[in-house]
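so i finally got all the pieces together for this one. its two components total, 461 residues if u count the protein bits. some of the lines might not be protein, just check the labels. i wanna see the whole assembly predicted at once instead of chain by chain like last time, that was a mess tbh
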Amino acid sequence: MSTQAFVVDTGAANTASVFACLQRLGVEPVSTESAREIESAELVVLPGVGAFESAMTRLQEHGVQEALRARIDADRPTLAICLGLQLLCEASEEGDGVRGLGVLPTTIRRFDDREPVPQLGWNEIEPAGGCELLQPGWAVFANSYYLAEVPEGWSGAFTDYSTRFVSAVERGNVLACQFHPELSGDWGHDLLTRWIERAKAA
Amino acid sequence: MLARRIIPCLDIRDGRVVKGVKFQNLRDAGDPVECAERYEAEGADELVLLDVSATTEGRAHALDTVRAVRAVLRIPLTVGGGVRSAEDVGRLLRAGADRVAVNSAAVAKPSILAEMAERFGRQCTVISIDAARRLEPVAADSGLSPWEVVVSSGKVRTERDALEWARESVALGAGEILLTSLDRDGTREGYDLELLEAVSHAVTVPVIASGGADRPEHLVEALQAGAHAVLAASIFHSGETTVHAVKSSLAEAGVVVRP
């Protein structure tokens, strides 16, 4: 049986690109909103485009917040993409007053208007010390909000747009990207290959 | 630093890539999946796929094309053409689009932009504006720009001011503007730089220049005029240049492109 990846249904727009990408990587994607599946799955992906507040509400309705927190605390292989990364934080300037999962003890800010918002397109990724999965290269962004600091205990990569922001963080088997690895050509494909290989070795 | 984007455009009819001049006289230009793979390999930053089918049957076919392209494509995909409702947008996203462009339907019912932004996010919501120079010059004190919005593949002039529509679209929820000059589309005379400059200065979202590209210099001019991305079809489909060659020329001209 091939490896399965459980993709958390956040009710947000498209997960088709994530599904197609996982299939190209030889992984069978399965959509889920079950806490039990999220807790026990070998691989979990928290995807995301959409709005912080509605996605967080959806996670609450399905009671999967604790399952997500538990697996990340236990270093089980988990990939968060774009809004997925933001949902891991404590709060966002986008969802006024709505609490995130709080796995990353930091808040999400909005880009100022010095550059067009949203940031759309390819930008450079510069991993800082301690990164093992993240390597230098170019990745695709579609975001108006960003993570300003690397939380303690995590390693991060940086990117410049209006300001220098955190474009991804990793800790063991957990990888959270502000960019879209599934849309970032060879570079993104290689990053996810490393994540899956590490997960299988874990 | 964010790279300027080079975007090949595939006009799709009945499952084939087609190309016309000023939106008319469509000719066959290849298989969409083969074109998509080739452009990604050449260094395209994303693809735009526009469904130019005239029938409901053709529209259903377009969803299959989106699925087939998505299965192989590892860069962003924007899909437009014939989008009438938020339900259409949902179907295209589920088939594999990353962003959806809406055109005539938004002119008829601007609230679709707010609905799209609310349901799918601004970064997913693209307003496609086809603009043409007005047939009659406008009075200097009218507050109007020299361009009006055209719809129905360029067949209907609305007299609606293109600049004002760009601003309104963004206020409603559009996160990007795909700006096509009807006067230049397929003519290979270069982009309408004045139009690009006016629109990109009027809004805070990225603007994609479309219509009229022939040589790499045209793309450089468009980016210097304020476009954040450049779209082209004919020059890539005909095989006379490649995305890679265009990017080399842009890099030489000092434009930041993804290597």
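The helical segments of chain A are 16-24, 35-40, 52-61, 65-73, 83-87, 185-201.
The CA atoms of residues 69 and 103 of chain A lie 6 Å apart.
anyway lmk what u think
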